[in-house]
Amino acid sequence: MEEGKDYYVRFSWYHRLSHFVMMTTFIGAALTGPPLKYSYDFWAQAMMSFWGGVHNAGLIHRVMAGFMVGDFVVHLLYLAYHIVVRKAKIIGPDSILFWKKDLLDLIGMVKWFFDRGERPRFERYTFWEKFDYWAVFWGIAMIGTSGFALWFPTVTGRFVSGIFLNVARIIHGDEAILAIGWILFVHLYNSHLRMNVFPMDPVIFTGKVPIEHLKHDKAAWYDRLVREGKIKPE
Amino acid sequence: MRVRRLGSWPPPGGRRLPWPPGVRLWVLAVALVLVFLPALAGTAWALDPEGCLICHGDPNFVDPTPDPNGPTSLYVNPQAFKKSVHGNNACSTCHRGFVLTIPQHQLDATKDFRQVAIEACESCHPNEFMQYQTSTHAKLYYQDQAGPICISCHGSHEIRRVRLGQESADFKMSMARDSCGRCHKDKFEKAKHEFHFKALSLGYSPAATCFDCHGFHENLALKSGEEETVRQCRKCHPGATKGFTYFQMHLDEGFENAWWGVRAVYLFFSTLLIVVLVVGIAYTTVHMQKETRMILGVLGRGLGRLFGFIRALEEESVRESMRARGATEETGKEPGAGGDAPAHDDEKGGEV
Question: Tell me, what's the pLDDT at B345?
Answer without folding.
Answer: 45
